[in-house]
Amino acid sequence: MMDILEIRQFLPHRYPFLLVDRVTDVQPGHCISGYKNVTINEEFFTGHFPEKPIMPGMLILEAMAQLAGILGFQTTGKRPADGYIYLFVGADDVRFKRQVVPGDRLDLYAEAGASKRNIYKFSCRATVNGELAASAEILVAEQIV
Predict the structure, then answer these.
(1) I want to staple 100 with a disulfide (CB 3.0 to 4.6 A). Which of 5, 30, 55, 122 is the partner?
(2) Active-site position among 8, 22, 48, 105
(3) Which long-range contacts (CB under 8 A, 24 or more apart) does 18-25 make?
């Protein structure tokens, strides 16, 4: 389990763009799970949509990519403090199945897939109360900064 202080050691993102609140399980080289608590206080709800707040799909995708990045770091044993970063470089087979609204807990899961040189592929999904909200095949690239 990783709390927000540990997560911040693996992700360069900060408020309001850090979209992983907790990692509940990580098996380096295999899979990771965590979650994002979605609250009405999120800045994006002021414009998306004020009368019927819905978490933007692209931010759900970003949350899955952030979780995949943590798995990448855990798998390779590297950290941003060592001069590395994982960049979100692509997504395939993206599907949005359910709206995510304030009060939801967005459960996130990523499974490591193929890798080639510095590009890693992850099968990701996001659920709310066990119901699929989104899924995607996400590509991240390891880069030295």
Answers:
(1) 55
(2) 48
(3) 18/66, 19/59, 19/62, 19/63, 19/66, 20/63, 20/66, 20/67, 20/70, 20/108, 23/67, 23/70, 25/1
